[in-house]
Write a structure and sequence with these properties.
The complex is a heterodimer of chains A (372) and B (310). Chain A is built from 10 helices and 17 strands. With 372 residues, chain A is α/β, with parallel strands linked by helices. Classes of the chains: A alpha/beta (372), B mainly alpha (310).
């Protein structure tokens, strides 16, 4: 700025517009008390979508209850330079010391760039892969939700009468394929003839296409539906309306399908977020790469619905107990893909921390579908 | 919970296409009929995407608060009417471009609906009823495909009525004259501006009702990704339909059915190339446009006052 005493009309207008925008989005304008730790959450979609963003927002809500913590949030921030502006305004205007940019595309380059610029601020990203050489004040966390999907598969295998399960997925990326495969392996551990018909819709949020996919699968005799899309709401509601079972994802969707909801694979971020806030407050180090499953409490399964029988509950609980003592491996040989090729030879195991699982590019035997 | 009967196999594909044509086409039908009316009066309203989303949100919110989905449909229509009036009024000022105003209103409608719709993402509003036309079949799949929503029936009736009205009614003639030549209309003493404003407002009403179908019947809940561009597609359908209401009806059915084809083929095991099948409606449109176009004449049926043709 050239003149500090008389701001130009343009900058005044700009300031007024920014103020108006802030007021319109409901962002807190005032600064926090100096003693409070300000934590910023950034979501790519609405935080009450019954999906991925809601799972993160539930973790944020747990932080709001803590004394001495102030949470600021912004929704629907695109995975572009817009997220850098949001992060900078949270740091400079709100005084945030801990940031959670939660969407996959925020990580590289946006979050890494700002982590270099603001070394005193802690950045925690969901899903990204922090590697040696990235800024030390950045980190990434993620959960092995395929463990919960495996348990959901056991329940689905027990409950399905037709042995046909349906999986509505957005895109064939490793995280999605891992869920489809774990769900199928769980179901086939109960009923070796069970199959999972997969439909890829092509994008993360296409409500009409998801509804069409649900109806097509049900028409083909599928009687348990699950999904990996941003918001499973439409899939769950369509399944309930057509009178088939469903298994949730991201958060508990039982209220959407009170009769047919079996169980679901959920994120459980509250505990992790709370421990991160404690660490920042007390100055304790936080590991840069946090991964964990049922045992570490980063994922959980929904409470069983009324349609889940005794045998299903027992077996799922037994396998869950083995996950909790970390004595259970989902992806172990001999494992074939659905074209007949061996992907893991007999005698070999790929435990949860195996990096080969993070680049999965096959569908296991029993999945009906193709990657392209 | 055993009414998922045995699989239909390949019969599922035509069934899904028919069912999809009925389920998915309704918002296309309402928006394209609305746009058809507006364009016949000589204006283009690109804002109908925003109107559709606004209708979806306001209809859902009203149904939730009053407990009556029909009140929701009415309010969705009125919200659309307001947006149409706004577009019509602004475009009546001198030297205002209707396409630019339409884009502005599209963004406004979308943003406003997202802002006001925040508290309505979670709650469950009562949905619109459906007429069971599949009672004669013992197959649950057929019964499900032939559950026909009342709004679809209304839309189906609207199309020929609008065609007849444009052709034969005095007001229809006024709309057509205003759309084909403002000078001729003025010479005949027809109110050009008022006709255009009311044609845009009525078009907005129809688009709002189309939005209510999305949130109150299929897929049947309010979310921010609900429309994903259906309003824009429907506006384009009007050109595809040659500004003929019955053409809008057929084009909507075609798009609805083609949209169902991708998921249906994957569900019977045709899993290769699903991105291509998902793109089918658009490829189809391109093909029809190419076949139907001619360098020797302008688009048949295009209103003379429309910005696209001159």
């Amino acid at each position: 700025m050239t003149n500090f005493t008389t701001p130009s009309r343009r900058s005044l207008l700009r300031g007024a517009a920014a103020g108006g925008l802030l007021a319109a989005t409901g962002l807190p304008i005032g600064r926090a008390f100096a003693a409070d730790l300000v934590v910023g959450f950034i979501y790519v979609g609405p935080r009450d979508d019954y999906g991925y963003n809601q799972a993160q927002a539930e973790g944020a809500a747990a932080l709001k209850k803590l004394a001495g913590v102030k949470v600021v949030e912004e929704e629907k921030v695109p995975e572009t330079i817009a997220v850098e502006k949001t992060m900078e305004s949270m740091i400079n205007l709100d005084g945030a010391k801990l940031l959670f940019p939660t969407s996959f595309g925020y990580y590289n380059p946006h979050m890494l760039k700002l982590a270099k610029k603001y070394p005193a601020v802690r950045f925690e990203h969901c899903g990204g892969l922090w590697t040696e050489g990235a800024p030390k004040n950045a980190g990434s966390y993620f959960g092995y939700i395929d463990e919960a999907q495996y348990l959901a598969g056991i329940v689905a295998g027990h409950t399905s009468k037709t042995g046909k399960l349906g999986f509505i997925a957005a895109k064939p990326i490793p995280q999605v394929l891992r869920n489809i495969n774990a769900f199928t392996l769980g179901a086939r551990s109960v009923n070796p003839n069970a199959t999972t018909q997969v439909i890829f819709t092509g994008d993360w949020s296409l409500p009409v296409k998801e509804a069409e996919a649900s109806n097509s699968l049900i028409d083909q005799g599928v009687d348990v539906l699950t999904c990996h899309v941003d918001s499973p709401k439409v899939v769950m509601e369509t399944a309930e309306r057509r009178g088939v079972f469903c298994s949730g994802y991201h958060v508990n969707q039982a209220p959407l399908a009170p009769k047919g909801y079996l169980t679901g694979a959920e994120w459980a971020w509250s505990g992790l977020f709370t421990s991160m806030v404690d660490a920042v407050k007390t100055g304790k180090p936080i590991p840069n790469l946090v991964r964990g499953g049922l045992k570490e409490g980063l994922v959980k399964t929904s409470a069983y619905g009324p349609a889940v029988g005794e045998a299903a509950r027992k077996q799922a609980d037994a396998v869950k107990a083995r996950f909790l003592d970390s004595g259970f491996v989902i992806f172990k040989g001999p494992l074939k893909d659905n074209k007949g090729a061996v992907v893991i030879p007999a005698g070999q195991e790929q435990g949860q921390t195996d990096l080969r699982l993070e680049s999965m590019n096959y569908l296991v035997e029993g999945v009906l579908g193709a990657l392209a | 919970m055993s009414n998922a009967a045995e699989a239909l196999g390949w019969w599922g594909v035509p069934l899904a296409v028919i069912g999809g044509a009925i389920r998915v086409s309704t918002p296309f039908l309402f928006v394209s009929l609305g746009e058809c009316l507006t364009e016949r009066a000589g204006r283009i309203n690109l804002g109908l995407e925003g109107t559709l989303i606004m209708g979806a949100m306001s209809g859902y919110a009203t149904a939730l608060h009053t407990g009556s989905p029909w009140a929701g449909v009415l309010v969705a229509g009125l919200a659309g009417l307001l947006f149409g009036l706004l577009h019509g009024a602004i475009c009546s000022l001198p030297r205002v471009n209707d396409i630019a105003v339409g884009i502005g209103l599209m963004l406004l409608g979308t943003g406003l609906a997202f802002f006001l719709g925040k508290p309505y993402i979670q709650p469950k509003a009562p949905g619109l009823p459906a007429i069971d036309l599949g009672w004669w079949s013992s197959l649950p799949q057929v019964q499900a495909a032939l559950k026909i929503n009342v709004l679809f029936v209304i839309g189906v009736i609207c199309a020929p009525v609008m065609l007849w009205w444009l052709k034969n009614a005095r007001l229809g003639l006024v709309v057509r004259t205003v759309g084909d030549s403002a000078d001729a209309a003025r010479a005949l003493g027809f109110p050009v501006i008022a006709t255009r404003i009311w044609a845009t407002a009525a078009g907005g009403f129809l688009a709002g009702v189309g939005g209510a179908f999305l949130s109150l019947y299929y897929p049947g809940s309010w979310s921010e990704g609900l429309s994903s561009g259906q309003g824009i597609t429907a506006v384009a359908l009007v050109i595809f339909a040659r500004w003929n209401p019955m053409g809008c009806f057929y084009a909507s059915l075609l798009f609805g059915g083609a949209g169902a084809l991708g998921p249906a083929l994957q569900s019977v095991g045709v899993t290769q190339g699903y991105y291509l099948f998902n793109a089918l409606p658009y490829a189809l449109t391109l093909a029809v446009m190419i076949i139907a176009c001619s360098p020797r004449r302008t688009l048949a049926g295009a209103p003379g006052e429309l910005g696209v043709t001159n």
